[in-house]
């Protein structure tokens, strides 16, 4: 009987320890399999990979333009911002009331100017980095955007992460490491190495600027509107990129050998960028800027898969491993939602204690049912033995 009680106590302690670690990793939420793989998660994964495919489209068209001797990154950005201007900015222009373009410019013009400036320079610096450093360095250092995003979200958006989120980010970065290893094995360490430190510094600057732009995008989309964000980006992005294009590419644009192929490449690039800018706020609104950037880590893999057919890149099985690992990390990140520090601590603590009590209650019920079952079986055995003994005694009489 003493051994049985000891086993019961051990079982109860083991279940309690598992519940404690689950709450530590995932927070006060009793996760079940049906709560993890939901339609919302599948939709988020699909949208994230759609964004990666759009980035893949921009990379492929850029490669074709470079092969044709066209290197005009500011002009390509200018066309994208102009298309945003002709759609979303015009929508704001025809709005009435407090949310029209006049009221927005009167109160918040300088904020959107800084946001557009950050976005334009982030696009420009990462393109310039290819002239000074290698593809491997860019792929590795570009992951710096995720850590900056998490810090900025923690400070300005009051986003709080659970341990499972940090584990998910580590898994995604492990997938990036596998992708870089596959590039090295396949001999795709392309790019210049004339000024490696300058190129690496430009990548880090670009990552920091992208992080700032994405945090501003998340705040604007979730608190104001997607149309307002894109309309202001189109307006100020067109002005800033137009001025930079006139200064930096005044000699490169006239020497372009225009033909229908070059025109189609510019159109394809602009449409992919326009789709990326239009669709990304939708995914950010559903998840977060950090989650979106984790999903975009697969964009390089899509570019590599296309490059195998279009540019005859060498294949490596590590590319498949990298894709699976990054996708797994993205799923882990979205299993448990983040929370904000603005939520009431008393409410959060109460939810935590309620969840803890529910877990203990559930564990206690499991052990209690088991003990009740064991006790019933013991009673049945004792009763059967007593009846057999009584029947034997009575037959002797």
UniProtKB/TrEMBL annotation:
GO terms for molecular function: transmembrane transporter activity. Keywords: Membrane, Transmembrane, Transmembrane helix, Transport. It is a multi-pass membrane protein. InterPro entries: EmrE-like, SLC35_F1/F2/F6, SLC35F_Transporter. The chain crosses the membrane at residues 44-66, 78-97, 138-157, 164-182, 194-215, 227-247, 259-279, 291-311, 317-336. It is found in: Membrane. Pfam families: SLC35F. Its main location: membrane. One of its GO terms (cellular component) is membrane. It comes from the Eukaryota. Belongs to the SLC35F solute transporter family. Putative solute transporter. This is Solute carrier family 35 member F2-like. The gene is LOC113038629.
């Amino acid at each position: 009987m003493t051994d049985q009680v000891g086993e019961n106590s051990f079982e109860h302690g083991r279940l309690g320890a598992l519940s404690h670690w689950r709450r530590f990793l995932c927070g006060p939420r009793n996760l079940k399999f049906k709560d993890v793989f939901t339609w919302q998660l599948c939709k988020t994964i699909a949208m994230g990979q759609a964004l990666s495919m759009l980035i893949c489209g921009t990379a492929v068209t850029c490669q074709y333009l470079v092969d044709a001797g066209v290197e005009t990154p500011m002009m390509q950005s200018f066309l994208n911002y102009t298309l945003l201007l002709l759609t979303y900015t015009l929508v704001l222009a025809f709005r009435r009331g407090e949310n029209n373009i006049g009221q927005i410019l009167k109160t918040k013009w300088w904020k959107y100017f800084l946001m557009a400036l950050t976005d334009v320079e982030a696009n420009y610096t990462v393109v310039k980095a290819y002239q000074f450093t290698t593809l491997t360095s860019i792929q590795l250092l570009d992951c710096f955007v995720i850590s900056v995003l998490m810090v900025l979200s923690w400070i300005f958006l009051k986003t709080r992460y659970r341990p499972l989120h940090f584990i998910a980010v580590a898994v995604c970065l492990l997938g990036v490491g596998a992708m870089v290893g596959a590039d090295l094995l396949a001999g795709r360490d392309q790019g210049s190495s004339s000024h490696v430190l300058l190129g690496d510094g430009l990548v880090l600057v670009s990552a920091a600027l992208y992080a700032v732009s994405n945090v501003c995008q998340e705040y604007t989309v979730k608190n104001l509107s997607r149309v307002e964000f894109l309309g202001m980006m189109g307006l100020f992005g067109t002005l800033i990129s137009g001025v930079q294009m006139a200064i930096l590419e005044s000699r490169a644009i006239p020497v372009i050998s225009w033909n229908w192929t070059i025109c189609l490449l510019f159109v394809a690039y602009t449409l992919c960028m326009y789709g990326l800018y239009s669709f990304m706020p939708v995914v950010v609104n559903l998840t977060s800027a950090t989650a979106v950037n984790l999903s975009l880590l697969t964009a390089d893999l899509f570019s590599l898969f296309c490059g195998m057919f279009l540019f005859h890149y060498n294949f490596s099985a590590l590319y498949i491993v990298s894709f699976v690992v990054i996708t797994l990390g993205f799923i882990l990140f979205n299993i448990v939602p983040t929370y904000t520090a603005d939520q009431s601590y008393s409410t959060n603590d109460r939810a935590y204690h309620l969840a803890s009590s529910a877990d203990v209650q559930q564990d206690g019920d499991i052990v209690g049912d088991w003990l009740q079952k064991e006790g019933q079986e013991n009673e049945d055995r004792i009763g059967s033995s007593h009846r057999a003994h009584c029947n034997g005694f009575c037959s002797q009489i």
